[in-house]
From TrEMBL:
Its EC number(s): 2.6.1.9
UniProt source species: Alloscardovia venturai
InterPro entries membership: Aminotrans_II_pyridoxalP_BS, Aminotransferase_I/II_large, HisP_aminotrans, PyrdxlP-dep_Trfase, PyrdxlP-dep_Trfase_major, PyrdxlP-dep_Trfase_small
UniProt key word Amino-acid biosynthesis: yes
Assembly: Homodimer.
N6-(pyridoxal phosphate)lysine: residues carrying this PTM: K239
Protein name per its UniProtKB record: Histidinol-phosphate aminotransferase
Domain Aminotransferase class I/classII large: 30-368
Keyword Hydrolase: no
Any one Gene Ontology molecular-function term assigned to this protein's record: histidinol-phosphate transaminase activity
Family the UniProt entry places it in: Belongs to the class-II pyridoxal-phosphate-dependent aminotransferase family. Histidinol-phosphate aminotransferase subfamily.
Length: 386
């Protein structure tokens, strides 16, 4: 894509491409970590009813503070995590992507650094770029877990204004124990932030986009909120909640962090239609989450199946996942695996460390197709020696 020189694009963006997973019309799409099950008839009825109720008010701007939605999200969080967060300490936006961007707008910026643990979600560096924030990655261990001591040492050295911990992580699926998050949060309270008041400490953003898929016994970082005012926990309705098309993400944090986001948000950023659609889904949380347990089982079965498959005589490496996707490899040429599966109508994602690909959990039929086609592809690669 070449933008004509006559268009005065920012110099630092001149060589950039629009980023995003391919949106292709193929029979089996397992590339963007969606929930493959559509909303129930009850949810659809509720959406239609609520949209009809507010349709005649669309000449007016929506509730800028989206108070009803924040209350419904606080109620959901209490049910899901057991943690009581006041609605004033919850904030929503158009997907957790927008929440993340707002965090960078409020806490990043020129002269500031955001730190995270590689490999991780590929959009963070884009928000850093767009807000002129320096992006700093420190490596995870070989098993993709966070090296907490090394991370803390790096935080002390770099003095970032933001630390982002993704749990479960994308694209590896790796969770981090809440006691390890707490060690990082506590350490940050003794770190000052370059280019901020000397009493300021880094905020720790825990991105829990996939948290509902976690294995039993994994505690949510929401449990830290009452004790630390430098923690923010972000979630989304896009994944387990099966509502990616509605574009709703949200965050729970101290009042100070939420009020900072209120400064940078666009006026009326969350449309009245989005707000009622989200309320309709939150009215039916059990239905929206009804396939989560099944998808967890699909993940366990698929991981076990993948671990038995052979590539050039070796078993595949499969990253243990607490999410609705699995990272597996290592292939000499992962693009070939991606392309061959695509030719067979299965779209996965080329992402993460070299040689790995990621597959997201689909319906039973979709997973059967994935397994059948991957078996063919592995066989073809064995035959050709590629
Ligand atoms: C780790 C992580 N965070 C945030 C998001 C953004 O999700 P959304 O903007 O749909 O809420 C994603 C989407 O893939 C993700 O993987």
């Amino acid at each position: 894509m070449a933008i004509p020189a006559t268009v005065p694009l920012r110099n630092d963006l001149l060589d950039e491409e629009p980023y995003g997973a391919p949106q292709l019309d193929v029979p089996v799409c397992l590339n963007v970590n969606e929930n493959p099950y559509e909303p129930s008839a009850a949810v659809i009825d509720s959406i239609v009813k609520r949209v009809r109720q507010i349709a005649s008010t669309l000449n007016r701007y929506p509730d800028r503070e989206h108070e009803q939605l924040r209350a419904a999200l606080a109620e959901y969080l209490k049910k899901e995590t057991g943690v009581d967060v006041p609605p004033s300490q919850v904030w929503a936006a158009n997907g957790s992507n927008e929440i993340m961007l707002q965090l960078f707008q409020a806490f990043g910026g020129p002269g500031r650094t955001a730190l995270s643990f590689a490999p991780t979600y590929s959009m963070y560096p884009e928000y850093a770029r767009d807000t002129f924030t320096t992006w700093h990655m420190t490596s995870r261990k070989d098993d993709f877990t966070v090296d907490v001591d090394a991370g803390i040492a790096e935080i002390k050295r770099i003095q970032p204004s933001m630390v982002i911990i993704t749990s479960p992580n994308n694209p590896t699926g790796t969770p981090i124990d809440v006691s390890d998050i707490e060690r990082i949060v506590a350490a940050c309270q003794h770190v000052s932030v370059a280019d901020a008041d000397e009493s300021a400490h880094p905020i720790v953003v825990v991105d829990e986009a996939y948290a509902e898929f976690r294995r039993p016994g994994v505690t949510s970082a929401h449990t830290l909120l009452a004790r630390y005012d430098n923690v923010a926990v972000s979630r989304t309705l896009s994944k387990a909640f099966a509502y990616a098309g509605a574009r709703v993400g949200y965050i729970a944090a101290s009042q100070g962090i939420i009020d900072a986001l209120r400064i940078v948000r666009m006026p009326y950023h969350l449309s009245a239609l989005t707000q009622v659609a989200a309320l309709a889904a939150l009215e039916h949380t059990d239905e929206q989450l009804s396939q989560v347990e099944h998808l967890r089982r699909t993940r366990e079965d698929t991981a076990a199946w993948l671990a038995q498959q052979k590539y050039h005589g070796h078993e595949l490496a499969v990253a243990p996942s607490d999410s609705n996707f699995i990272l597996f490899g290592r292939f000499d040429n992962r693009h070939l695996v991606f392309e061959k599966l695509l030719q067979r109508g299965v779209l996965i994602r080329e992402v993460g460390p070299d040689g790995y690909v990621r597959v997201c959990m689909g319906t039973d039929d979709e997973m059967n197709t994935f397994k059948r086609e991957l078996t063919h592809v592995l066989h073809e690669l064995d035959e050709s020696g590629e």
